[in-house]
Amino acid sequence: MLVSKKEIEVRYAETDQMGVVYHANYLVWMEIGRTQFISDLGFSYAQMERDGVLSPVIDIQASYKKPLHYGETAVVHTWVENYDGLRVVYGYEIFNSNEELALTGTSSHVCVKKENFKPISIRRNYPEWHKAYEDAKKQGQSQE
């Protein structure tokens, strides 16, 4: 399965009063992982935005397993969990410095036109991305 990996140093500002990473920061890290995954495929989300297309989150799930702390390194693993030509579901696992699982999650996205938020087909409008996502999905299925 094609899995992108991104290391993120936990900053003091990302922790809460209990000294652990504040829960919402994991969502930011998921976005960083997703952007890295897209870049690893050879594409640019920023270019898509310049083309007038956005990819909003339509659903997000997160299950917290173990806290991360200031000074640790979070390692975000990202892959295509599901893809149907219109909707992309990314899967995530975030590990701590000791390779212990800290979070599992998914985020679902569609692509929309910036001016009116009408959904567009990735398959039709971005055939290279479509092929890369199909290939990434197949890689994951072939290893199950």
From TrEMBL:
Protein name (database record): Acyl-CoA thioester hydrolase
Q: Which UniProt keywords apply?
A: Hydrolase
Superkingdom in the source lineage:
Bacteria
Record's PANTHER family? 4-HYDROXYBENZOYL-COA THIOESTERASE FAMILY MEMBER, NOVEL THIOESTERASE SUPERFAMILY DOMAIN AND SAPOSIN A-TYPE DOMAIN CONTAINING PROTEIN (0610012H03RIK)
Top class in the EC scheme: hydrolase
The GO terms this record gives for MF are: fatty acyl-CoA hydrolase activity
The EC code for this enzyme is: 3.1.2.-
- CDD domains given in the database record: 4HBT
- Return the InterPro entries for the record: 4-hydroxybenzoyl-CoA_TE, HotDog_dom_sf, YbgC/YbaW
Q: Which family does it belong to?
A: Belongs to the 4-hydroxybenzoyl-CoA thioesterase family.
Q: Does the keyword Hydrolase apply?
A: yes
This protein's species is Priestia aryabhattai (Bacillus aryabhattai)
